[in-house]
Amino acid sequence: MAARLPVRTGRLRRRLTLAFMLVAGLSAAILAVSSYLLVREARLSDSVDRGLEQSRFNLVLASETLGASPTTAQTTELLDAYERRGTFAVVGQTNGRTFSSSLSLGPAQLPPDLKRLVGAGRLAYERREIAGTRYLVVGGRVPGSETQLYYFFSEERLWDELAQLRNILLSVLGAIVLLGGLVGALLARRLLRPVARASVAAHSLAEGLLDTRLPVESRDEFGAWAASFNEMAEALETKITALSEAQARERRFTSDVSHELRTPLTALVAEASLLAEHLDRMPDEARRPAELLVNDVARLRDLVEDLMEISRLDAGEARVRIEPVDVGSLIASAVRSRRWDDRVTIDRDEVVMSTDPRRLERIVANLVGNALEHAGRDVSVRVGKDGLGAFVEVTDTGPGISPDRLPHVFERFYKADSSRAGPGSGLGLAIALENARLLGGDLDVWSEVGRGTRFTLRLPVT
Amino acid sequence: MDERLLLVEDDASIREVTKLGLTQAGFHVTTAPDGREGLLHFRQAPYDLVILDVMLPVLDGYEVCRQIRAESRIPIIMLSAKSDTVDVVVGLELGADDYVTKPFEMAELVARARAAVRRATAVNDEEPVLVRGDLEIDPGAFVARRRGEEVSLSATEFRLLLELARRPGQVFTRELLLQRVWNYDYLGDSRLVDVAVQRLRAKVEDDPKEPRTIKTVRGVGYRFDSG
């Protein structure tokens, strides 16, 4: 299976949610800022308009109260009149004398730029913060007099209202961002649900539940997707069912053939074995063919028995019978019973484990037989135990297997040395591997051309 | 050798060559092509050994084995199709003494047949009667008694009991028992031992599930305790 990147679920959903929040927040922010600026602009210019209008009126009022060079009494009278109107403070300057309606306001608080403009005879204004209060200061000259009057209109309320507006807009913005997130999350979840479902479905397909299908709930792209997914699953199911039926047929055929072969083979083997006892008493012209016959019956027997074994393994009929096994002595007696002692050396550590002795013997006999077939002699078997479990190494000093052939040695009927038809059935290593797996272990091969080949059987020790 | 052997096998070629090989080895061979005829032959004349195919027409090998064992302690060798399936165990549980897997070489079958016959006959007449708890084992007469009553044991079961009872307390591995009782040189099937012990326990133990006489030594083998 291909290596997979670790999948972190929910990432796409988070990203979608975040995008939603961003879009909602950004549009709401643009709206809020522009409307705030518009309102602020309108309110401020409105305030200036009113200030200027009132100042003009106040200046006319002053020109009626004050003379060309007003006395203190006149200025006091003016201040009194203004005080009755009440909404502003006033600072006046006439002939170097200053008067003010407020203790905290005096000539020092007059903005110099404004003073210059007023000095030039213009009606002008400037905004200024004095002692924590924001004022619109409007200045002008009393008509027909040198007297300058400055009106301080407090804009505190206006700024308070603007601040209030700003706060309201900010909280609305926050609410919109949150709402955006919520809607985004819900939408993302709904949107991604088919994706999640498809992922689960693909998984269960991969695990072999071939009847897995997706519900087609909508007529959108997801619906189309689900429909194509189902088509694919359908096609896959049909194909795999057909394949496994074909495979089952093939296996049944192999099994049937080998079973049908068994009866005549049993007769043949018994006959050949009986014939073999009388070879030396045969006339010369009959002896050689009889010898060949005996050998070929043995070959046929090996082949049919291997075929039957592999068809049992394929059919899952192979049974494992676990018992305590002294691996070294089992291998030693397997080698002895086949009269291989003179060509095989065994180097063994004490390994006693629970396994199926017949299958273990089968594996080792196949490996050693295979090694002897290719190397002829000097086969060494090592039995031991390490951190990974028990192992049996079967090493020969034969011609070795070329790297392009090495990966195929466990395939059925694969002959590593195609130039000659060896005496083996071509199934020995495949059977050894199947048996090794049946025992929970595995079989590895290492080989170098000119140096030899080593098969390593690994078995778990529990 | 003058042993009389009954061979029940349905395939004509196998039957003929097997008969030929066994005759050359010195047995007097009678053959039968199916289970019913096999049983008829068995009941008509005395035999020293039965070789029985598992797959037989009319009456299968298991049924023939069961009926013969109900009547006699004669050694029975089953001819089984494959060695790693339940076939073998079923045959052994029904009282077969040994099995040979098809295809077989004549030398192998002859060796098994001779070993089976030897188990059933050659016991040292001189050996005294063994008394172990409530068991009395008489090697000369080939008879075992429990609380005075004769226990019906097959030849193999009797051998197994004798082997174990000769050395009470000693642990016998399955391999050793295969060598001593069945005459397997190497790598016999340990199921032979396990099934024979089961059958033996059923006959000499009060509760075969809680054996007091033939005890299992986990991971090693068996031990005879005379209690």
Characterization of this structure:
Chain A has helices at residues 11-65, 72-85, 112-119, 156-206, 221-277, 284-314, 327-337, 357-375, 428-438, and strands at residues 88-94, 97-100, 124-130, 133-141, 148-154, 323-326, 344-348, 352-355, 379-386, 389-396, 442-448, 452-459. With 462 residues, chain A is an alpha+beta fold. Chain A folds into three domains: 11-164, Beta-Lactamase; 222-313, Helix Hairpins, CATH 1.10.287; 322-459, Histidine kinase-like ATPase, C-terminal domain (Heat Shock Protein 90), CATH 3.30.565. In chain A, helix 5 packs antiparallel against helix 6, helix 6 runs parallel beside helix 9 and helix 8 (357-375) runs antiparallel to helix 9 (428-438). Chain A is rod-shaped and about 170 Å long. The mean pLDDT of chain A is 86. Chain B has two domains: 4-121, Response regulator (Rossmann fold); 130-224, Arc Repressor Mutant, subunit A. Chain B has helices spanning 12-24, 35-44, 61-71, 86-93, 106-121, 155-166, 174-182, 190-204, and strands at 4-8, 28-32, 49-53, 76-80, 98-101, 130-132, 135-138, 143-146, 149-151, 171-173, 214-217, 221-224. Chain B has a five-stranded parallel beta sheet, with helices on both faces. In chain B, helix 2 (35-44) runs parallel beside helix 3 and helix 6 (155-166) crosses helix 8 (190-204). The interface between A and B is medium-sized, with 31 and 29 residues.
Largest interface: A-B, 31 and 29 residues
Q: What is the terminal separation of chain A in angstroms?
A: 28 Å
Poorly predicted residue ranges of chain A = none
Major sheet: arrangement of strands of chain A: 2-1-5-4-3
Secondary structure: helix percent of chain A? 55-70%
Helix content of chain B: 40-55%
CATH class of the largest domain in chain B: Alpha Beta
What number is the mean pLDDT of chain A?
A: 86
The sequence of SSEs of chain B as H and E is: EHEHEHEHEHEEEEHEHHEE
Spans of at least 5 consecutive residues with low confidence of chain B: none
- The helix/strand series of chain A, from N terminus to C terminus, equals HHEEHEEEHHHEHEEHEEHEE
Gross geometry of chain B: globular
* Average pLDDT rating of chain B: 87
Count of helix runs of chain A: 9
Q: State the shape of chain A.
A: rod-shaped
